[in-house]
Amino acid sequence: METACPVATFKLPPCLFLPSIKSGTTSSRFLHSHLRSKQLEFQNHGFSSQFIFRCSSSRKFLISPCEHEKLKYEQQLLDNLPKRDVNSWSALIVAYCRRGNFAQAFHLFQIMVGAGLQPSGFALASLIKVSSSLGEIGCKQLHGRSVRTGFGLDSGVRAALIITYSRCGGLDDAQRVFEETSVLALDILLWNSIMAAYIFHGCWVQVLRLFCKMVSVGVVAPTELTYVSVVNACGSAGEEKYGAMVHGRIVKDGLEATNIWNSLVTFYGKCGHLQHASQLFERIPRKDVVSWNAMIAANEQRVEGENAVGLFRRMLKVEPRVQPNRVTFLSLLGAVSGLSYLNWGREIHAHIIRLGLEIDTSIANSLITLYSRCREVGTAREIFEGMLSKDVISWNSMLAGYEQNEQQGRCFDIFKRMMLSGIEPDSHTLTIILNATSHDSSGFVYCRRGKEIHGYILRRITPGGVSLSVSNAMLKMYVKFNLIADAEKIFKGVKNRDSYSWNAMMDGYSRNGKFEDAVMIYLDILKQGFPLDHLSLSILLTSCGRLVSLQLGKQFHTVVAKLFFGQDCPHQESLLSINNALISMYSKCGSIKDAAQVFLKTERKDVFSWTAMITGCAHHGMAIEAFQLFERMKTEGIKPNKVTFLALLMACAHGGHVQEGSYYFDSMFNDYGLSPRIEHYACMIDLFGRLGQFDRAKSLVESGITLFKPYHDDILNLWKVLLGACHASKQLDLGVEAATKILELEPEDEATYILLANLYASSGFWEDAIKVRKAMRDRGLRKEVGCSWIDTENRRHVFVAGDVIHPQRKEIYEKLAQLNFSCRRMGYAPMTELVLHDVDETEKEAILGCHSEKLAVSFGLLNCGVGNGVIRVMKNLRVCEDCHSWMKFASLLEKKEILLRDSQRFHLFRDGSCSCGDYW
């Protein structure tokens, strides 16, 4: 028969039951019921305190997942105690602190103090750690309490004060608490805490100094946590040598904890030593999710997206199984976004959904970025609209998606919604929306919106001023709209300019024809001590192309060769950008051979390399070569863009290839999903018009007007192109209709008056021509003066028709007379029908005989010397048929190549023929 055991004789220590509390909910409740049946629940206060403490540590103590119910149960334990001691109160305070319920913990603390009891040092430390919600004042109050109650020297309390002060922004107070303790009395907890405080504030160098001081004192040895903090600080500060030394010390101490391995992998990944990071990763005996995350992140930082995805797939197959977390997917999504691999992105998205992580705001933001970069902006919008909680990064990601995909209208709509939702835009928001306004396909509308945003920025400007990124975005916007005076104001107001600021202003001057100012910016960059980057030199080379200065371009090519093609070779992308600029510069300056040499020497070509070369061929009348390059480009797997197709259509227009032009125009959308812009329509109208297919040309004009109707400038350009084609083909009726449409929209366009008057005159309607010229004079409009120029010995010589001010005018006219005489003997006859004035033939011949391009060629022949040098002449207007014919005879007579660039294209005259095939 079983004998009942009295309570007083129950000898087993109650704490023996406590370890089983963590084993699960059922065993915890069974144990508590057993204790009640034995009447032991509240007879031992130490046991009750430990029971509450263990309950607070157990996530499975109650069946209900609600933390409130857990704490309520533990509160009941305390309330039922017949006599509450310090340990009981402290245990429950710690329980509330562990679950982040600072209000209730502090309430208990006040009741406990009111009852004349003081919490334990551990409870006070826990309370201090979660007091950051009260700010620095609350922390100081608890600090004072700890001093008054005799816990001021308690290591745990001091460590908690250091951490809390740092989180509240009081780094100096944290340092003061640390320094109040004698160096010899500092334990490892305090050293680790102060290091954590400095890491929290990004003071990486100070962490390294503290580590050196701790090692030199020699009282305590670094722990795993110490080494993790120091290695992370080395990685963030970029201290490779110091990090390697710490690594050596870790090896010497024989520490092989996984968290140390993880920190070393992260360190070498941040320092760019991916191979070393990989070797360490493979040596980790027990890889946890942090290990995999560190290695995936290292590959993502080094733009090794394929390796990152490979690691993820390998991670899913390892045993024991390691489950990826949100950090894993954030790194993966960043890696795949950089590659723009849509299928890989969808694969990772599927894993995210299976793990239920799609509701995480950061992951949703990364998914929006991924799909936007893969041009799946519709899918990105679906994710955005399905988010339960949107932060400013969510809105910025969606804005950037529309901006990158050139959907500016929707970008502005999202920005408006963001403002109405109450989310305050940050500097990144304003930078994105300003970049969206910089797209100039409909300049008037976007310019107005950009100025409105500029006004909004000025109204909400903070004492700290406008951020550099926003200032640069405004600078870029005004440069894009050719508002160079406004751009200069922004530029002068930027205090701490970076390379982007200098480059944007330089590009602005270059775009607006202020090439001397662009070069002055280049000189200012050198004076300020800023290093020349690849963008600076690319802009300078582009300026040389716009200036059509081959000599200056070659000089800058020499600078490029010294800076970027030596031993200190830049990143491959930088080198590619410079090569692309060189190809463009040489082709625009008429040296297509030099452009081809740079193109062939470029090892890795992108779409801009191919497009630059195709554009060069188009301008030089090499349509067949342009078509062949395009086919090679497709074979290389390079996807063309809108500019590529524009170059192809230009080649077709310059060569009269109507069948190929129609094919490329249709292929843009049908094969590549690219919608033609106004420039593509203009090329096709020009192509049809010059071949006499005016019905097709007018049909395209009408289609373009319907498509680009809101935009005034776009409609004007279409009619102007049609008028030019009518003028070249003497199509009077359609030309008059086009001119009428233009003058209705822009009555002050002098070029239209000139073309219309010439069209009337060439068709024999002299009275109408006179009326148009009179109307032009009455409006105070003047014809643009035709001029030609040639560069010799670093000097530019400019000529106008009948020029009489050049120092060598006597020799030039003598040479011209000699050339005219010899050309006539060879069969040249002046085309007097091109002189659209009612004068006699002799005067018409005199007018034709002194055109500016003939004077420039004569000067070039006088000064180029003996040899095979090319005579390079530039003209601001389209070359007339008479001068074109004359130059063919001159090239044959003088045995010289004459390269003429007019407003349309390049003409290379060699041995009596022209590269254009007399079609231009």
Helices and strands in order:
Blueprint: H1 25-37, H2 45-57, H3 67-79, H4 86-98, H5 102-114, H6 121-129, H7 135-148, H8 155-167, H9 171-179, H10 188-200, H11 204-217, H12 224-237, H13 240-253, H14 258-270, H15 274-283, H16 289-301, H17 305-317, H18 326-339, H19 342-354, H20 361-373, H21 377-386, H22 392-404, H23 408-421, H24 427-437, H25 443-459, H26 468-480, H27 484-493, H28 499-511, H29 515-528, H30 534-547, H31 550-564, H32 572-588, H33 592-601, H34 607-619, H35 623-635, H36 642-655, H37 658-672, H38 678-690, H39 694-707, H40 712-729, H41 732-745, H42 750-762, H43 766-778, E1 787-792, E2 795-800, H44 809-826, H45 841-849, H46 852-863, E3 871-875, H47 881-894, E4 898-901, E5 906-910, E6 913-914
Parallel strand pairs: 3-4
Antiparallel strand pairs: 1-2, 1-3, 4-5, 5-6
Helix pairs in contact: 2-3, 2-4, 3-4, 4-5, 4-6, 6-7, 6-8, 7-8, 8-9, 8-10, 9-10, 10-11, 10-12, 11-12, 12-13, 12-14, 14-15, 14-16, 15-16, 16-17, 16-18, 17-18, 18-19, 18-20, 20-21, 20-22, 21-22, 22-23, 22-24, 23-24, 24-25, 24-26, 26-27, 26-28, 27-28, 28-29, 28-30, 29-30, 30-31, 30-32, ...
Kindly describe this structure.
The longest helix has 18 residues, at 712-729. It is elongated, with a radius of gyration of 39 Å. 67% of the residues lie in helices and 3% in strands. The protein has 47 helices and six strands. Helix 38 (678-690) packs parallel to helix 40 (712-729). By secondary structure, the protein is mainly alpha-helical.
